[in-house]
Structures
1.
Amino acid sequence: MSVVINALSYAHAANVLPALDTVSLALPPGSRTVIVGSNGAGKSTLLQILAGRRLVSTGDVRIKDRDVFRDSPPGVTFLGTEWAMNPVVRGDIVVSHFLDSVGGYRYKERRDQLIDLLDVDLEWRMHQISDGERRRVQLVFGLMAPYDVLLLDEVTVDLDVLVRDDLLRFLKRDSETRGATILYATHIFDGLNYFPTQIAHMAFGRLVTPPTQWPPAAGPELNAEFGSSTLYSVALQWLKEDREHRRELEKNGRRERGARRNETVPSDSETFYKKYDYSH
């Protein structure tokens, strides 16, 4: 297996609900797994741990049969949304100079393929371009070096639909031809049906549905959960179930979300701001 996790648990702080609770999975080389889950389900935390960005004390996390913390495996690429907000990459630097500074000249053929695919202008200045254009530069930067395991955390969120589709087709070909493993957490499911080899469902820090074949194989026993649904409809149904489950938990003591319509005593902040409200 390319990625193996056994009984992984993680909490951001003491005395809080765990972000991950005894998560286990195994991904073979060449697989492309899409993780479905609502905000706060634990998807980003899982990917960050796989990338070695968060140290854990409970559970075994291995990539290419190497401990990601004690024997860091080569060939692992992590791409997340926070890159575009880094002040370093928002400075006044020409894109061509930026790519050369991070070693683009070492992967010229692959770099140029991505520049064309993502429609990047080498004369862009990083401080003047849009978030979507900056995201395209990030993808060139992150993908130009061949990887064995690619961890994607909502990294297509700023892309227009055409560039996103071209990118996903490139990643699919890359996975098929080189046997690279891709783990992709996203909330954008339209046009994604053809991409994954398997899908997984995370909720409340748990892996509710482990990586499962996609598209579903023929036969009633294998189609029992998915039927002939699209990935979008499966994701929508899972998220609805998660929301209903959370509301049941709230009835049994979990902190409630939403407006507090039953409160008769104003909060401290309401009292304070009313006192200094001069709009009336």
Note: The helical segments are 43-50, 95-101, 108-117, 131-143, 161-178, 231-251, 268-275.
2.
Amino acid sequence: MDSLTEALQSTRLNNEPEELEQLVFNPQPDTGIEDTVLDNIPRYLFRLASPKSDGTTDERWVRSAAAVDNDPSSLEDIFSNLDIDKREEIAHMLNLHLRWWPKDDVQDNFVSWTSSLLFAIQYIYYRHYKDGTSLDEIKLYVVDTTIFPRGTFMRDLDLLDIFGGFDHNLQNLQSLRNGDTWYFGEYLSQGSLKIENKCQVIPADVLFERNRLRRIQPQFANIYRGERQRAPTWANEVVRLRRAIWPLPSPSTSAPTGMGDRLQAIEEIMQHVAPDWRFPIAIHFAALIGPNIPRVEMASRNVGFLDSQSWSFPWLTD
């Protein structure tokens, strides 16, 4: 009886291997790129997802299209068993993914993230008008990359350096993205990534309630609820907004007008954010105001999402 009890205690009802929480990039020395590129990852990355997005994204998992289809390639790092044929295959998949071209029979195992909050926000307009997706179905995901293992994310430019020579279309994209104008801080993960308890989610409608986004930065377009509009440009509009919000060669020294209401709009958004995430996310939204934000006013205002005693961070730009 004792032997039977011990045997039952050690029996597993499910012998399937436990699903990996991430599939890391592991470039080998023969890829021609330094291992240090895996350390060149911003602390916070954004992903904008809707029901029309490729793959699936929710508060527990982010899965590529290949992972959703349970394709075997979704479990294999792109750098494993590299030969000429596989390099060409990866280059082709990377080109289709980065250009948002139809995938046809190609299994896309990439998931896109961005370090640019501006780029993610403009994608809300694109999805809302292009697909007719309601704002409450569109969600902004923020992850802290330091919580994940090294190699979970990789910059698109580094992947372009490795695989650009194996697809002529990818080479053209590499030339385009190497300039400042058409670079939008894109980073990729691969396969399935567990983000449960490692992310903050903000529904898009929170940003537009009470006109909050335009109160922060009037350069953003008004959004017409319930009306199907022509899909706005995405990349071109981001370029325009960059130039309008952060003019070059040097901005004027005058502070933006209506600062009190701008900060109030940020504080209203932060009420929908968990306390541990409020400070870094507030910094990114405050950067959308522009470069000339008087720090004294920030510290002196009674804003709940900032600790004035620790206010020593430079303003982030896009």
Note: Confidence is low (pLDDT under 50) at residues 5-17, 296-318.
